[in-house]
Design a protein that fits this description.
Elements: E1 4-7, E2 11-18, E3 30-38, H1 40-49, E4 55-62, H2 65-76, E5 80-87, E6 93-100, E7 103-109, H3 118-122, E8 131-135, H4 140-153, E9 156-160, H5 169-172, E10 177-181, H6 182-189, H7 199-210, E11 214-218, E12 223-228, E13 231-236, H8 248-261, H9 266-280, H10 293-300
Parallel strand pairs: 1-4, 1-8, 2-6, 4-5, 8-9, 9-10, 10-11
Antiparallel strand pairs: 2-3, 6-7, 11-12, 12-13
Helix pairs in contact: 1-8, 6-7, 8-9, 9-10
């Protein structure tokens, strides 16, 4: 079995729930304030570790109360924190999230995540069969260095380009599997896409990014579209009652990485990750909503 290495962000998510999102300049009454461990890196690492695959997180925390709480939580989920550093003089990453009618808006303040650098990602020993995962909540040069090391070691590289920002070809050329949602696909390709578009339109946009790599587009309740060697593969969505979609994409990425590290074929890994995400959206919070392997298998076998 291979291992999963995630270089990414670690945040405390401060979640306000309300009946609806405020308009610009408006104040609305909320229902509750909740605190959940999050950050795309941490979420993906937890999603992977809960599938029973050895998972290491590379990142930074502030020397504050949030940092201590996040460490305690991640260790309890089975995530290896050997390469998570404390950064005195700065705060831990924080996300301010509003949830209304199962949809969310998010403002992320990077804090210590912005300090993750080449020295941090140089320490872990990657090997052939491992899966290296990253996202856009740490500096892009750090991700590039991480993927260069992964490629040199024979590991598979997985990039989730979120939140979207301009990325150069030097980074994208190091990506084996690109996982993004329909919004990110539109932004990265400069294509106007709508949730009502047919799968073929998404496939056409994704083909411009393929160039020898696998492209997976997560389409929420509509499922997942993947392009493999130019061929279109569609995994249907699962009908569930969504409560909070905050960690769904991260759940998909982490579960997929874990399956690939375990040696699963891509189609099987996509179906598994899709089922995992369908469980995640039925729970509040990001990292705490990630399902176990037993829960995912129960859904797949039902």
């Amino acid at each position: 079995m291979g291992r999963v290495f995630v270089a990414g962000s670690i945040n405390m998510d401060v979640v306000a729930t309300a009946e609806r999102h405020p308009r610009i300049g408006e104040t609305v009454a909320g229902d509750s304030v909740l605190y959940f461990p999050g950050g795309k890196g941490a979420n993906q690492a937890v999603a992977s570790a809960k599938q029973g695959v050895p998972t290491t997180l590379v990142g930074r925390l502030g020397a504050d109360a949030f940092g201590q709480g996040l460490k305690t939580f991640l260790a309890a989920q089975g995530v290896d924190l050997s390469f998570v550093k404390d950064s005195p003089g700065t705060h831990s990453g924080t996300a301010i999230i509003t949830v209304a009618n199962a949809d969310n808006t998010i403002v992320v303040v990077p804090g210590a995540n912005a300090l993750v650098d080449g020295d941090d990602i140089a320490a872990p020993g990657l090997a052939k069969g491992d899966v290296a995962v990253s996202q856009f909540e740490i500096p892009l040069p750090t991700i590039t260095a991480f993927f260069k090391r992964a490629r040199a070691a024979g590991a598979t590289t997985v990039l989730n380009p979120a939140p979207m920002k301009p990325a150069n070809t030097a980074l994208l050329d190091l990506v084996d599997i690109l996982i993004l949602n329909e919004t990110e696909l539109g932004q990265l390709t400069g294509t106007e896409l709508s949730v009502t578009d047919a799968a073929g339109r998404y496939a056409d946009a994704a083909r411009t990014l393929a160039q020898g790599r696998i492209v997976c587009v997560t389409l929420g309740k509509r499922g997942v579209l993947a392009l493999v060697d130019g061929e279109q593969l569609l995994v249907p969505g699962r009908e569930v009652k969504a409560v909070d979609t905050t960690g769904a994409g991260d759940c998909f990425v982490g579960a997929l990485a874990a399956q690939l590290a375990s040696g699963s074929k891509l189609r099987d890994a996509l179906s598994y990750a899709n089922a995992a995400a369908s469980i995640c959206v039925q729970r509040m919070g990001a990292a705490p909503s990630m399902p176990t392997a037993e829960e995912v298998n129960a859904v797949l076998n039902s």
